[in-house]
Amino acid sequence: MIGILIVLCIFTLTYFLGYYIYCNYFRAEHVPYELLKSKRVIITGASRGIGEQFAYEYAKHGTCLILASRQLKDLEPVAQQCRTLGCQQVECVEFDAGKVRKRVKNGMVLICIAVQHF
């Protein structure tokens, strides 16, 4: 009986400690959508998957988008859909973050395009 109470106390303490850590350190604050309207967002991997969905979500709120992917031709349908959703400025950039040697050079090019275009 005492063993069950000890296990129950340890479980309860662990649960509340984990919940406290989650609430104070890991739960994201909600950003009001009106703050996104004038922002510039660079999305890598925007041709498919999570990156594509991020692009659509940001486009709905009127952000300026820079879409980056390894294949430039794959970005055009995503860019067109973003324009349809209400995004005024969409720039597509071919960018391969996986190549270590070119990563710094491509990253600087991506940042320069973002600064010059918007």
Automatic annotation (TrEMBL):
Origin superkingdom: Eukaryota
Gene Ontology molecular function: oxidoreductase activity
Entries under InterPro entries matching the protein: 11-beta-HSD, NAD(P)-bd_dom_sf, SDR_fam
Pfam families assigned to the protein according to its UniProt record, in alphabetical order: adh_short
Gene3D superfamilies the UniProt entry points to: NAD(P)-binding Rossmann-like Domain
Stored PANTHER family: HYDROXYSTEROID (11-BETA) DEHYDROGENASE 1-LIKE B-RELATED
Record-given protein name: Uncharacterized protein
Organism field: Didymodactylos carnosus
Organism taxonomic ancestry: Eukaryota, Metazoa, Spiralia, Gnathifera, Rotifera
